[in-house]
Amino acid sequence: MKKIQYTSVVAALILLGSQVFAAEKEMKIDGNSEEPVVIETIADAFKNGKVKGLLRYGAQHRDSSYQVLQDDPHIATGSVKAYSALGGYLGYETAPLHNFSIGATFYTSNPFLGNNSDNRKGLGGLYEADGGQDSYHVLGEAFLKFQNDEHRVVIGRQEMPDYRFVSLSNIRMTPFTHEGATYENTSIEGLKVNAAYITGQKDRNGIDFDDMVRSARVSIGEVKDDNGATLKTKIRGSYDPNNFDASGNYAGDDKEMPMIGAIYTQDNWKVEAWDYYVNDFVNTVYLYGQYDFKPTDDWKLSLAGQYSNQQDVGDSVAGNVDTWFYGVKAQALTSNGILFFLAYNEVSYNEDSYDGGTMFVRWGTPQMFNSFQVQDSELAGTKSIGVGAQFDLGALDLLKSTVIRFRYADYDMPDEFYMIDARQDRTEATFDLRYSFTKDSGFGIFTQMDGLSIQFRIAYDNFRTDYNYAAFEDHHGFTIDKVDDDFVDARIYIDYVF
Amino acid sequence: MRLHYFWPLLFSPLLLMAEFGIVDAFTKGAVHGQVKLFSYDIDKSSDEDAFATALGGYLKYSTDTNRSLYGSVHFHTSQPVGYNKNREDTALFNNDKNGDALTVNSEAYIGWKGTHRVLKVGNLMLNTPMMNDDTTRIVPWSYQGFAYTGEAVSDTKVQLNYIRRIRSHTSDEYKKESASGEIGDGILMIGMQYDGIESLDLQSYYYYAPDLYSTFIAQADYKLILDKDNMICVGIQYFNSGNGGKYAERENKNGGDDIDLLAIQAGLYAEDWMVSLNYSQNFGISGIVKGYGGLANVFTTSMVANGRGNYKPETWMLKSRYDLPVTDWGYSEVAVTLTNTRVHDRRGDDFDAYYMHWKHRFNVDTSLFVRFENIDYKNDKSDVKYLRVIASYEF
Q1: Which CATH number fits domain B33-394: 2.40.160.10, 3.40.50.2300, 2.60.120.1060, 3.30.460.10?
Q2: What integer is the mean pLDDT of A175-204?
């Protein structure tokens, strides 16, 4: 009974506080009104907060069981993967009082139209952990925020759109959100420092926040021969098998991710440095630089480079990790809304590293320049060349409110028969279209816009198949169960943002 | 690629046409929310004690409801905080997932409003005698189907509901299952309320659930106004179930095909106090504690103690409430309820109970509610004390 007395006192204090706590006057400008709103009490803060919402119809269809790391881990039994869903989010944040505010956002996705049969799961548009494709609802944001002109602190569950390797990756029905504390500082002109201590991550279609090792989808990845003898594992080097369950997935202690990043922008160049340290798992360094210049009034050119290095740390729960990737990119933008790019990425191939050197990128959008619609260019030994062109048809006076983009990439994989982590070479061609009901031009394929918009995306993936599979099987002693050929991945999003 | 994935594209011209309307409907929408801290202690003289604290609430958004077509979405969440024991027993969390945090979509519907009629389709919170939301925790019950309310005939309100799935207040999933068993093809409810006779309200409902059981309800309430401050109210209720289907369980305490309950109420309501005497007898074997979902609206209902159980309970309940004088801190009420239940079947439980509460409203948005009930069983069953402390803020 003492426990409840204690709780009662706390509750009473909270309630009384909400009534008697009067702050110095703070002003909030309501976007829809010219009258300043005075925020004096907690009640004022609640009554003058902001609502955010997204109503999304989303559907995806892939005429293949092909599964990439960015998909849901629950593999379908059929030869087609698909979902068709209605969902989005609804959130509310109080107006700031003494620069403090609180907020919460609910995310949801529900089967809607189409064929959402269980044997088509695997894409992650609906809840799949129970074996089917069902509705899910989750409190993805619940935070306390302090923000002034130079400092921003957020504690709790939150969206983290500006942290590179940690980001939203909102390409299904709802985004990744993270749990922990973030701090952003802009007190030095041109410099933005982002720091965070992340304790958990909600998968795009998850309802729980998992630690940062589970979120990276670490698994033993065992391949056995007919007699049950282990021929290959994803994990290399020494590791503690007690950290893994019977299915080979990580089941050890929760691991957090302290991280820090700095973005320095001056005139026409920008450099970024990031470090993500997941306790007893892996440390990731990421460097990025970009230089912009205008050779003529009609052209803006950008040159960018990126480099990342990943090493195991502490107890090395995923064994040895020793890998890297780098990339270079050139981009040209015309004054009438045409954009061209050419990019190259290479990932380390190291058979002594987890999965041959594959990068862990599951905490957000993969950062490789050649991360396209299905292929993310994060796999061991990938050498990729990508080209693309985007046309703002509204700016070109061809078709108002419409942007289209074409891309093509060649992924040259380590594919010699003696390589234990060999994969098939592949290419991907994509086409994206975005139509806005609120803007005539000046937006991109993923620009966040209020109002109604439609996005259609299609990719064609083609795999090289003329390999001597028998040589690979003879050399390594195991059977190849699956060879990928070609497939089409199509997606549509009809979004209403308010 | 199959065409039906792109049905919405086919409708995109309609969306385009409606865009200007959509913008207005959303910008003139309304948001409501609640933050609630809920502590619950169930004190039994055994290791079946339970204790938990939950922090949660709801967020609701509706587009402009002055339009004939509108939509609404409503989420509830209840998150465990701090120490807890046997928290599944508090019915505050997700009992499908071992008492983990519970987040649900309790409403998501499209509403159509015409002259004297409203039709809602989707996930709904209902308020009917045997299918209702039960807001005594943080997360309510909700229902999937359609609900029509019409007042085309003068002084008469007609309700027609069809429910195909039900979500319990301890689950995030809509299932073909009610509080008292599977519902198979669903539940059809028709209800009628008539207030055309001065001081008399009549209402009747029929729930048709062929795979479970069907229930007929009739209720009459009469108000005798003595003066501007005093009023006498009397009421009578009758519940009768039958037509048991393949999922009916006759002895189910939440509902079965042998409910035969009569309840009577008489009360005096003054300016700042009320007292009422309530009586019910269930002549049937089936209980009616939760009905199809929520809490069945029977006069003999306290916080936990009630006369809605199975095995033929006969219950007397004396309810009283007093409104304390308004102060600078707000306004309060205190209440006391005494319950006496005796069963007419040896399988049931006799008990006496007393209940008291203090509810304080600091203002219209902020309240603190302390509720306590003690149930003294007359057989070997362990006596129980229930204490709930609920702090709530609405915006």
Answers
A1: 2.40.160.10
A2: 98
